[in-house]
Amino acid sequence: MRQLSLAVERLGGAAVALLLYCCAAAAAPSDTAIMADKPPKLLSEFGFFSDARAQVPTEGVVPFEPHTALFSDGALKFRFVYVPEGEAARYVADEAFVFPVGSALIKSFAFPADFRTPYEKVRLIETRVMLLHEDGWQSWAYLWNEEQSDAEIKIAGAKVDVATIDESGEPVSFTYSVPNKNQCKGCHQLAGEIVPLGPKARNLNFEFQYDDGPANQLERWREAGLLEGLPEDIAAIDAVPDWRDESADLNARARAWLDVNCAHCHRREGPASNSGLYLTWGEAIGPALGVHKRPVAAGRGSGGRLFDIAPGSRMALS
Amino acid sequence: MRFVKESLAATAILSCLTFASYAADHRVMPGPNANEELIEVLILAEPGDTVTIAAGRYDLVDGLSLDVDEVTVRGEGANRTVLSFKGQAGAGEGLLVTSDRVVLEDFAVEDTKGDGVKSKGSDQITFRNLRVEWTGGPKPENGAYGVYPVSSSNVLIEGVTVRGASDAGIYVGQSEDIIVRNSVAEYNVAGIEIENSYRADVYGNTARHNTGGILIFDLPNLPVQGGHDIRVFDNDVMDNDTPNFAPEGNIVGIVPKGMGVMVMANRNVHVFGNRFDRNGTTHVLIAAYPNDYEDDAYMFVPRGVYVHGNTYGEGGGEPDGEVGKIISDVSGTPVPDIVWDGVTRIPEYFSWVSAADRIYIDEADDTTFANLKMISQMLLPWGWWPDKDIAGYKGSLPEPEPVTLPQDKGV
Question: How many domains does chain B fold into?
């Protein structure tokens, strides 16, 4: 697993690796913590990680990655899925999979000291969890402490000052926002219900570097019993490109970016439904996708422009 | 931590999550942690609870949001409980409500980065005695909307004051069953705007010193359109004299300074018993949507507008901007009290417009009027003239039933 090995590497020692090995054998996620009426105060109580500092998961907690990821201020992200023993998520073609009660999605946000060496001196900022209860998904954010030894729940969210160096060597500093509970729902919402966004077939349908080698994630989820109902022919399933992949179709890259970064709100059932601007992967080309669409009531969001997309016109790139 | 009644001290916060079922009054006081406390108390509130925000000034850096049904958020007066967002770093609005049966009353929201107080998808939402203001006066950097229910139903806005919005002070969009009453909108681009909405009563308000006083608009390419059954009555619409300061691209950018009431597209709009004075472009403008669009479901011309029993003071002496020029080039200056652009659909131009879809005007004898016959200008550029004979538009339309809201019945 790339993340794991890099994580270990960044802690820089065989002693740590040995420690991980010892811990990993016994640890497992706590179904009790996942299903508790009130979420645990500390992230460690879930037992998702054998070494949370290094983002090494416990048995049954599987890392995953979308091909095109939400921008999130450029944070490094570590994502994991947990489905209770003996259960599986159900494949859905165009939306997030339908998970069984007791499932958890875990995502950590981190910044390296220097993006030219992105897996060294990594500071964990927050870990968000989504827990599926009988009455729906619960979402919580845990803020990492200074010592990076554990993370504590923050219902009201938090602001964290981040200073790093970008890929070109320029210092960057900004205030990172850890969302409050309502802000989680601000994006993770479909027709008023909290929903996962990342685990959609089209965005997982590519080869991920697991610790035992590369494998298609959908294939791996099926083999691991995490996913049922997957069509036999994975190659026939829609796939979103990595938006950074210059060899991929330019339109598909742009649509992938818009789908992942915008369409959780900008869709017919989403929080920005009233804008009439819909940017999901499958949206047909037309005014709803922004073509010849006027911004209407976007306020300063219009950027002083009369159309969202004016085909054939060029914008000067400063 | 200063929650007085229900202990929401840090250690007890989580335990609150498990308790439910009895109404509580949470009280928040000003202090260094007030922003976090407000965010938390609104998240942890239970249906039936009241959140009281004590008098004082609150300097907030992050927006607030409420997603719990049946909660009242109450300040201690629109000039005493002041939520200032001057230093706001996050969120698109000061307060966002996404739940049902919510009452917001007696507090002020100042200087938000985006919108002031918004509800999205709420049923039975009440905005009462609020003040939403950008304190630096009219500026394009101000947020777009002050009081902003959208995609909501059973909307009651009363006794609010909104100043400085760079789009509309009170803006109701894509909503149903709406009352806006006894409120003041001033120094906004649009004072009060009802857009793509069904069944609205707008009465007893003062709309002054805006660019345009009251706008009844319907726009294409939106999930709710075909606005209809709107009554605008008993309002004071005067001195709308603030130059348009909307950011470019916004539809309200077309509104000329000195517009009283403007009806654009929509069906069955009744404008009556209002007092118009000193609106420099015109007191009442009835117009079609002026831009091209791709939307087969959209009706771009107003259908069934009835203007009657209003009083008109001075006005029309300073037609402003592109729209003011288009009008006054045809009508002359001063622009008449009531102007209709005269745009009809081309098949109707060559045949007739059915009775229910016509424009009717029944005003005192000295009221002035012009039908600009814009369609004729397009089709017959060599021989058209405006129709200023107001008597030719006499008639009436059956008035929509008054809007009734559960909030008004003590529910």
Answer: 1
In a domain, A315, yes or no: no
Residue B42 lies in a domain: no
- Sequence-ordered list of residues with C-beta below 8 angstroms from that of A107, at least 6 positions apart, any chain: A77, A78, A79, A80, A127, A128, A129, A198
Cross-chain Cβ contact A299/B195 below 8 Å: no
In a domain, B400, yes or no: yes
Segment B176-232, tens digit of pLDDT? 999 999 999 999 999 999 999 999 999 999 999 999 999 999 999 999 999 999 999
Phi, psi of A289 (to 5 degrees): -85, -5
A192 contacts B39? CB cut-off 8 A: no
Q: How many domains does chain A have?
A: 2
How large is the average pLDDT for residues B21-27? Answer: 82
Give the pTM: 0.89
Question: In angstroms, rounded to a whole number, what is the distance separating the alpha carbons of residues B248 and B409?
Answer: 42
Non-local (6+) Cβ contacts of A170 within 8 A are none
Specify the DSSP element, H or E, that contains B36: helix B34-44
Same domain, A167 and A267: no
Name the maximum alpha-carbon separation found in chain A: 61
**Which of A183, A293, A303 faces B221 most closely, judged by CB atoms?**
A293
Burial class (CB in 10 A: 0-12, 13-18, 19+), A284: exposed
Testing the interface with B: which of A155, A291, A306 to mutate, by most B Cβ within 10 A?
Answer: A155
Chain A residues touching residue B141 (CB < 8 angstroms): 300
Q: What is the pLDDT of residues B32-84, one digit of tens each?
A: 999 999 999 999 999 999 999 999 999 999 899 999 999 999 999 999 999 99
Nearest residue, CB atoms, B151 vs list A274, A288, A300: A274
Q: Where residue B150 falls among pLDDT bands split at 50, 70, 90?
A: very high
Nearest CB among B65, B173, B224 relative to A182 is that of: B65
Q: Do A274 and B42 touch (CB under 8 A)?
A: no
Specify if A166 maps to a domain: yes
In total, the C-beta contacts within 8 angstroms joining chain A to chain B are 125
| Nearest of B38, B48, B50 to residue B8 by alpha carbon | B38
Q: How far is A174 from chain B (nearest CA, A)?
A: 11
Asked if A94 and A205 sit in the same domain, the reply is yes
A180 closest CB neighbour out of B14, B43, B220: B43
Share above pLDDT 70 across residues of chain A, in percent, rounded to a whole number: 90
Alpha-carbon distance A150 to A141, whole Å?
Answer: 13
Top residue of A154, A177, A180, A302 to mutate, by most chain B CBs within 10 Å, is A180
User: Same domain for A265 and A219?
Assistant: no
Q: Cβ of A300 and B61 within 8 Å?
A: no
Instruction: Tell me the ipTM for this assembly.
Output: 0.83
The model's pLDDT over B291-347, given as tens digits with 9 standing for 90+, comes to: 888 899 999 999 999 999 999 999 999 999 999 999 999 999 999 999 999 998 888
- Give the tens place of pLDDT for each residue, B157-173: 999 999 999 999 999 99
Quick one: which of B300, B283, B281, B304 has its CA closest to B291? B300
Is residue B67 a part of any domain in this protein?
Answer: no
- Flag if A299 and B247 touch (Cβ within 8 Å): yes
Strand ranges inside B70-204, DSSP E: 72-74, 81-84, 90-97, 102-105, 108-110, 115-120, 123-128, 131-133, 145-150, 153-158, 161-163, 168-173, 176-181, 184-186, 190-195, 198-203
Give the range of the structural domain holding residue A44, as residue numbers without chain letter. Answer: 2-236
**Burial class of residue B381, CB neighbours in 10 A (0-12, 13-18, 19+):** exposed
B88 contacts in chain A (CB < 8 Å): none
* Minimal CA separation from A304 to chain B, in Å: 5
In chain B, the residue whose alpha carbon lies closest to the alpha carbon of A175 is B89
Q: A151 and A73, same structural domain?
A: yes
Smallest Cβ–Cβ distance between A304 and the set B44, B151, B248 belongs to B248
